[in-house]
Design brief:
Largest sheet of chain A: none
Number of domains of chain A: 2
Number of domains of chain B: 1
Oligomer: heterodimer
Distance between the termini of chain B: 25 Å
Order of helices and strands of chain B: HHHHHH
Structural class of chain A: mainly alpha
Number of helices of chain B: 6
Order of helices and strands of chain A: HHHHHH
Radius of gyration of chain A: 21 Å
Structural class of chain B: mainly alpha
Strand content of chain B: under 5%
Helix content of chain A: 55-70%
Shape of chain B: globular
Chain lengths: ~170, ~140
């Protein structure tokens, strides 16, 4: 028997400890960078989010009136980068040499069907987003600094997630 | 810094963070999915998600010291709780939120994500139009 046959199958084959620690540090760094982006961009300010969603503001006064287009720049900047990322990084997922640094394979939802659950979920999500100006990322990123609104919003959001898991599909 | 410039730079950083997660762990940076799965999964599948969430929560607190997030008066508790329930429920039912469908889904040119983004944007625009933007 070759030595690699003794490796615990759930752990990566090469230097599991390095991969475990490296992977955790990378996830932490990604979270920090994501938070910096949210804070710098203004996404962490619900008033700015609602200002963007307030299309009626377009009609008020001179362009852009009471409408705040900033968040279009956030999404534009982010998608510009991810369009490049998804083109370059998983060059060919079927080729084993194209692996993530700390994982054995690229994983994302293969579901491409546009079904009723997707549309219902998106409509419901949009109503909640428009009501408070929080989506999950900004709410979590301001958990320690956002005050009472966030302390109410985040537990309610977790309860909503739990409900969706246990009442449907 | 001009607000449009800081918005674009912040967006680029969000994109880079998503790229980091993709290149390092081969995963989609979808906040609702990561949060939901962190609470459900165990072992490695929970660990990396908790590490990401820890970075997000601590990072938000850290960077808010340097780039202060303007405080705004607390709003009606019932409104905030209702909004939280809807956002949580909708993001799980619709398999993603602004990050998973928006930043990553559009980046990987998924039609399903594009439909989700257009739907929740339209829904949010209509909500703000009808409520007049509850601040």
């Amino acid at each position: 028997m070759k030595p690699e046959n003794f490796v615990i199958p759930t752990l990566p084959q090469r230097a599991p400890a390095t991969r475990l620690i490296g992977g955790l540090l990378l996830a932490l760094a990604a979270g920090l960078l994501f938070a910096l982006g949210l804070v710098l961009s203004g996404m962490a300010q619900p008033a700015k989010v609602i200002g963007f969603l307030n299309l009626a503001g377009l009609a008020q006064g001179e362009f852009p009136g009471a409408w705040d287009p900033s968040l279009a720049f956030v999404m534009g900047g982010a998608v510009m980068v991810t369009l490049l990322a998804f083109r370059i990084t998983p060059a060919n997922p079927r080729q084993p040499q194209h692996r993530p640094w700390f994982s054995s394979r690229f994983e994302w939802p293969q579901q491409e069907r546009i079904d009723a659950a997707l549309l219902q979920g998106a409509v419901i999500f949009g109503v909640g987003w428009g009501l408070a100006g929080y989506c999950p990322g900004p709410a979590l990123a301001t958990l320690l600094v956002g005050g009472r609104d966030v302390w109410l919003f985040v537990p309610a959001m977790l309860a909503g997630m739990w409900l969706a898991r246990h009442t449907t599909r | 810094m001009h607000p449009y410039l800081s918005a674009a730079l912040g967006g680029i950083l969000i994109g880079l963070a998503s790229w980091l997660l993709l290149a390092g762990l081969g995963r989609i940076a979808g906040i609702s999915g990561i949060t939901c799965s962190a609470l459900r999964e165990s072992g490695w599948h929970a660990y990396w998600r908790w590490a990401f969430l820890l970075g997000l929560i601590l990072g938000g607190a850290l960077f808010a010291q340097w780039l202060p997030v303007p405080t705004q008066p607390a709003r009606a508790p019932l409104l905030i709780v209702a909004a939280g329930l809807l956002v949580g429920f909708g993001s799980v039912r619709g398999s993603g939120c602004t990050s998973g469908h928006g930043v990553c889904g559009l980046g990987r040119r998924s039609l399903r994500s594009l439909v989700a983004v257009l739907t929740f944007m339209a829904s949010a625009f209509v909500t703000v139009f009808l409520t007049g933007g509850l601040q």
